[in-house]
Amino acid sequence: MHYKGRLTAVAFILSFRGIWFYYYNFLYGHTLHFSEVTITILLLFPAWWIGKQFDQVSELKQKLELRKEKLLKEIRVSENRYNNFVEKSPNFVVIYDTEGKITYANKKTLSLLEAENESEVLGKSMLDFIDPIQHDEGRKRLNDALQHIPVEPIEYKVITLKKRIIYIESVVMQITDEGKQALMFVALDVTKRKEAEMLRNQQERNYESLVKTSPIGIIVHKNEKIIWVNPAALKIAGVQHEHDLIGTSLTKLIEPTKIDIINERIQKIEQGHQVKPIEYKIIRPDGSFIYAEINGYKTNFQGQDVILSFAVDITERKKQLEKINDLAYYDTLTSLPNRNLLTRHLESAITDAIENGKKGYTLFLDLDRFKNINDTYGHSSGDELLKKVTEKLKSMSLLKNEFISRYGGDEFIIVINSNKSISEVAFIAEEISSILRKPVFVRGLPMYISTSIGISIFPRDGQDSDTLIKNADIAMYTAKESGRDNYKFYSNNLYEENVRRMEIERELRTAIEKKQLYLQYQPKVEIKTNKVIGSEALLRWNNKKMDRRRLARC
User: Fold this and answer.
1) Whether the Cβ atoms of residue 418 and residue 403 lie closer than 8 Å to each other
2) pLDDT at 57 over 70
3) Under CATH, domain 90-195 is a member of which superfamily?
4) Is the pLDDT of residue 338 over 70?
5) How deeply is 510 buried, as exposed, middle or buried, from its count of CB atoms within 10 A (0-12, 13-18, 19+)?
6) Sign for the pseudo-dihedral over CA of 273, 275, 280, 286
7) What's the rounded mean pLDDT across residues 454-473?
């Protein structure tokens, strides 16, 4: 607490009254009265109060001075802090006057603009560094800021002093700089982000272009409804416009027999399971159809979980595969199954017969004297004859459900897997012989053929295709040796006879090479006269293994 003012006021009253008393009493000789002392004492009270007021004012002034000094110090600290913040800020900070001229630029700004010193920047307009395309937008935003109109952040393309392009995201605000109205431009270097966005956008454009030009149909669907398709999908579906598919069900495109399958696959995909591509028949609005291989994945599209399906038109591929399949499994002349498909079918039939306790039959047909027709009329006529024979076999009602194949040359094999009796199969063989015995007209000429048929029964005569065909072949040759135009069932005796015949033929070839054959002459004697009337030349075979057997047995 201060008493200087009060003490000064009291001292002043006492000094004033002392002088008064001095002149009044001593110079003029007046006597000091009690009332004058009382007055002096009374004057001390207002003097004390006035002094008190002075002390309070003095104390307040001192406090204000201290407060002012403190505020000035804080301001200086704040300014230093602000200046340091602005100078060392990682952001682009520029102050420019109402005419758009730069009056201040921090170090980051100079660095970003690739300026070596302030003189290259100060006094210039911010528009000098901004892409000319954005000048009008820049001027408008400056005017809005001067008029206190809120300005949203914006991205600028900036061209540096060294002609390098950078991107900044900026805001502008009105401030007071050295007592004058000014604008502060604060920006963030977003070049890397922008370049990343540009790269991503380019990738998206490339992806979009790839998707749109892709020959693979792409379909995005959710809850069984199509929400996006690419041009290839429109082509596969046989429609012209997106609205023909968008909003419709994916199952609308699929053949009715596969709807349950595709619904099951969609459910699995939605549950996060992977599924393998599957072939579908796509039904088009005009009634035509194609084949497509479709696969799907769960993904995110425009912020929602969807299924992304890829559809590949495999119609041509399927046709090519069918052609390859035909070449691999069908005879090019008669279009009947060939030897390869016969083997697969016969193996399956054998397995079925064994597993189900049934029996089946392999009929081996060989056309009699077919070589004579080929040699006489030419191979083209022989081929035409084989086609006619094929037509006859396929037209037989008895063979309607049976497997007919061309084994090669003039040989056909029929597989009967309907558990028929031996007598029923014998009747079928007789009917085949009867139908093929009738004349066939080729190029206007009647041609007569017959067929020899060998029959093996499975699984009795063999449990694999090779054995059954071999045994049916043995039976067929037996039928030929019996006069052709006949049929024979295979038996073990036929097999043994066939083995014996083949053994003799093999030994005979060896005999010729080793000169084991020689002639013997046997005289012919007339009994009545007992005279030799001639001789018989006999071919003998000197073979210990064959025991000098006569060639007649061959």
Assistant:
1) no
2) no
3) PAS domain (3.30.450.20)
4) yes
5) exposed
6) positive
7) 94
Place of tokens 């194949």: 405
Q: How far apart are CA 204 and CA 207, in angstroms?
A: 5
* 3-state secondary structure labels for all residues of 334-400: CCCECHHHHHHHHHHHHHHHHHHCCCEEEEEEEEECHHHHHHHHCHHHHHHHHHHHHHHHHHCHHHC
Strand pairing class (165-177; 180-189): antiparallel
Measured distance CA(410)–CA(389) in Å, rounded: 10
Averaged pLDDT, 234-239: 90
DSSP characters over 161-211: TTS-EEEEEEEEEEEEETTEEEEEEEEEE-HHHHHHHHHHHHHHHHHHHHH
Q: What CATH architecture is 334-490?
A: 2-Layer Sandwich (3.30)
What is d(CA 171, CA 155) in angstroms, rounded to the nearest whole number? 9
CA quadruple 528, 532, 535, 540: dihedral positive or negative? Answer: positive
Cis peptide before 439 (omega within 30 of 0): no
Written out in words, the top-level CATH class of the domain with range 214-318 is alpha beta
- For residue 284, the cross-strand partners are none
